[in-house]
Amino acid sequence: MTFVFLIFAYLLGSVPTGVILARAFSDVDPRTQGSRNIGATNVFRTVGKKIGAITLLGDILKGFIPVALARGGYIDSHFWVGAVALAAFLGHLYPIFLKFKGGKGIATGLGVFLALSPLPAVLSLLVFAAVVSLWRYISLGSLSATAAFPVLLTALNPHQIYIPFALVIAVLIFYRHRENIERLLAGRESKFRENKKSPQSP
């Protein structure tokens, strides 16, 4: 059962929600437009708010569903629940359906975190909202929330075995955002809803 869940989690995580929705409801392929990322932010910018919002929900659910099912009784080992979480997340980053070229992992990571430990995940969302509200950088808010989750998990969740998995996911998110980090440090990262003619736009 555990092996089946690991495969299921990876395959569900591999479903390219943004690509499927964008090509179904527009002539845009997010892999060739904007930031060329398959995630909700790029779909939001290149296809529209509605499809971007549905992409966000879909990416969250494909991380949440397998972990929630595993925690719901199908797997009685917290270690293997953590492994299922990592498998779903890796599916999004390295999807078999897109030749292992996937997204940056924020939404799917959120889904995984919500299923693993809801309170730290919600508090991390508040960190995201606060950072974006203050500085208007989606990437900075995402990275701040990602960094906050393992800390909050350590403080608030009794199942400490989840911590290594959360740290691996966080490190991978930072790695996939390395170009955003470079632009943030250089002052060239685009801000949320800023004028496209702004000198800070990439």
Protein model, in words:
The protein is mainly alpha-helical. Helix content is 71%, strand content 0%. The protein contains 10 helices and no strands. The chain has helices at residues 2-14, 17-25, 40-46, 49-74, 78-93, 106-116, 118-135, 138-156, 162-176, 178-186. It is globular, with a radius of gyration of 17 Å. The termini are far apart. Mean pLDDT is 93; it is low at 194-202.
User: How many helices in DSSP terms?
Assistant: 10
Report the end-to-end length measured between terminal Cα atoms.
Answer: 47 Å
Catalogue the unreliable spans.
Answer: 194-202
- Beta-strand content: under 5%
* Rg, alpha carbons: 17 Å
As an assembly, this protein is: single chain
List the domain count as a whole number: 1
Give the proportion of residues in helices.
Answer: over 70%
Helices, strands, pairings?
Blueprint: H1 2-14, H2 17-25, H3 40-46, H4 49-74, H5 78-93, H6 106-116, H7 118-135, H8 138-156, H9 162-176, H10 178-186
Features:
single chain, 202 residues, mainly alpha, 10 helices, 71% helix, globular
